[in-house]
Write a structure and sequence with these properties.
Blueprint lengths: L15 E5 L6 H13 L5 H7 L5 E7 L2 E8 L4 H11 L8 E8 L8 H12 L4 E5 L2 H9 L3 E8 L4 E7 L8
Parallel strand pairs: 4-5
Antiparallel strand pairs: 1-2, 2-3, 3-4, 5-7, 6-7
Bound molecules: coenzyme A.
């Protein structure tokens, strides 16, 4: 997990996907990742810049040396897990980490990069995870990665948000 280039590209792919801890990226690279997350509107700018460097694990997609996609297993945030549990009506352990900050630059979307990014994270991190999303494309990626949609949708900042969970055997309802 502390090696930068351990995830091989599928043969013929112009993209390389690898996992790393934030400490292995430069400040400039972290900033590029935050910009991609913000461009994708996955989260507000301040929280991406604050939380990306604290992530447990990152997956990065590059082409020609440029970072074009990112995904993260975020640091433990029990208060946020508790809020998400209340919002969704799904009981889960408050120390469960969240998969998020999944974003791909528009010019590189629809090339299976979100699926490769999530798969790379899951190959390294095998404990239960949760995720929330409002985009149909992300729902497809989560479903293919083995996440199950549970509970009820709730009103987020701008959209209705759904809850997804992988690897947990907690009862579905609070
Ligand atoms: C959501 C997002 C990360 C998906 O990344 P991506 O690399 O383009 O997605 P993938 O190529 O891996 O495709 C995922 C699924 O969505 C579908 N999809 C993606 N873009 C599509 C498009 N433009 N048209 C139709 N289907 C599309 C794919 O077909 C795939 O489904 P399938 O495997 O059943 O065919 C990307 O659209 C993005 O960055 N959006 C803005 C940020 C965001 O909303 N992030 C999610 C926060 S929770």
């Amino acid at each position: 997990m502390n090696e930068k280039d351990q995830s091989a590209s599928p043969q013929g792919s112009e993209y390389e996907v690898h996992t790393c801890t934030p400490a292995l990226l430069s400040a400039a690279e972290i900033s590029v990742c935050a910009d991609i997350v913000v461009v994708g509107d996955a989260v507000d700018s301040a929280s991406a810049r604050r939380n990306l460097p604290r992530a447990r694990l990152l997956a990065i997609a590059r082409t020609k040396g440029q970072i074009v996609g990112v995904a993260a297993i975020k640091h433990e945030r029990p208060w946020y897990a508790a809020k998400t549990s209340r919002d969704s009506g799904v009981a889960f352990a408050k120390n469960t980490l969240e998969l998020g900050y999944v974003a791909v630059l528009p010019a590189h979307q629809n090339k299976k990069l979100s699926q490769r990014l999530v798969k790379a994270l899951l190959a390294e991190y095998t404990a239960p995870l949760f995720a929330t999303t409002y985009t149909e494309y992300m729902k497809r990626t989560l479903g293919k990665a083995g996440f199950a949609n549970k509970g009820k949708e709730w009103q987020g900042r701008r959209h209705m948000v759904s809850f997804w969970e992988k690897g947990a055997d907690a009862p579905e309802k609070v």
